[in-house]
């Protein structure tokens, strides 16, 4: 049987080219795009402003995939974890983090991850495969529908996803091509229409690919830093041996972004590893010529990993040193820990690392 083309793998430009390849004018591509992500639309026959013959062509050649209902786990603190089974049986996870004024969805970009950061459970899974653009955007569609279909699911936040962070399973820049297509769909008005400034892509430090994010999208950049020198980063994040901290900082300095924008540096405090006054001073020095904000993250301990979280008092002392150096520095408390949905805890059961 002929394999059908999943139209949710195309951004608008690609969709127009595809529709043209079917002998249709470009505007039909824009028309199809405006239907593909509408809640409740599951069939081409619902796209009522398309000619019947064209809908027939689409039915014969194309599909637009949607996820089956995800497995849902709720945390005591309001976070919800969505376990999603992909067409090949692999599992991914997305996490909804509600606050009174916003709903942030943390999405995955790969099944597993090849980066092996030593404090992260996802890293222990190994790399399984990249997600397609449709598998990235369908996480958003799935959770959007969950919020809309059952108002009681809105928890404490608004009834829609307001912010997206690429901090789930995987290293987004190792899936750059599909990431950029998905960002284009997510931000496109006829797609999911989420403003670029509400989306953050986080990388562990694939220095040569950082620029591409700024050149091809308007989203925010976050760097998982977790250490202010090569010695610490080498221990925590093997990627630092390939792209040492000097290369990473240079890529950040050269990151194309508007004047008022800043790069977010994520720094997980690990007891006795990277949380001393000296570490804070080094961090302050390291970032001195980069427009940035700093998030200090509370570590989620795991019995299978050797690290311990830093005390509240130490965290505040670390923050104070950075504040005195005029940084915007926030302490992010861990959320979703009771359902293994917190940062570095996503390691969906049911995957193995054979492709
Ligand atoms: S922290 Fe991110 S990049 Fe590192 S292993 Fe975990 S998922 Fe991969």
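Q: What amino acid sequence fits the structure above?
A:
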């Amino acid at each position: 049987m002929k394999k059908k083309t999943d139209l949710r793998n195309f951004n608008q430009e690609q969709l127009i080219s595809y529709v043209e390849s079917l002998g249709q004018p470009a505007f039909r591509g824009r028309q199809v795009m405006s239907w593909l992500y509408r809640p409740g639309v599951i069939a081409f026959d619902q796209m009522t402003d398309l000619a019947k013959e064209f809908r027939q062509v689409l039915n014969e050649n194309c599909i637009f995939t949607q996820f089956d209902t995800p497995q849902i786990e709720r945390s005591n603190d309001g976070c919800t974890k969505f376990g999603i089974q992909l067409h090949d049986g692999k599992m991914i996870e997305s996490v909804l983090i509600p606050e009174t004024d916003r709903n942030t969805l943390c999405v995955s970009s790969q099944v597993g991850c090849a980066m092996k950061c030593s404090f992260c459970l996802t890293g222990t899974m190994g790399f399984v495969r990249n997600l397609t653009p449709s598998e990235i955007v369908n996480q958003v569609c799935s959770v959007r529908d969950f919020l809309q279909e059952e108002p009681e699911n809105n928890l404490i936040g608004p009834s829609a996803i307001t912010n997206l962070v690429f901090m789930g399973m995987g290293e987004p820049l190792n899936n750059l091509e599909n990431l950029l297509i998905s960002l284009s769909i997510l931000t496109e008005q006829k797609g999911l229409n989420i403003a670029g400034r509400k989306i953050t892509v986080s990388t562990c430090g694939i220095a040569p690919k950082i620029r591409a994010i700024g050149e091809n999208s308007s989203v925010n950049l976050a760097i998982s830093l977790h250490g202010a020198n090569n010695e610490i980063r080498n221990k925590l994040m093997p990627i630092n041996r390939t792209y040492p901290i000097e290369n990473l900082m240079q890529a950040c300095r050269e990151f194309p972004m508007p004047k008022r924008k800043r790069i977010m540096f994520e720094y997980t405090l690990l007891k006795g590893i990277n949380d001393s006054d000296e570490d804070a001073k080094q961090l302050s020095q390291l970032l001195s010529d980069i427009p940035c904000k700093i998030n200090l993250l509370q570590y989620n301990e795991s019995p299978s990993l050797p690290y311990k979280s830093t005390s509240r008092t130490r965290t505040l002392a670390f923050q104070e040193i950075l504040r005195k150096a005029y940084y915007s520095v926030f302490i992010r408390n861990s959320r979703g820990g009771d359902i293994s949905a917190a940062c570095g805890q996503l390691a969906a059961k049911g995957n193995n690392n054979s492709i």
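Q: And what stands out in the fold?
A: The longest helix spans residues 133-149.
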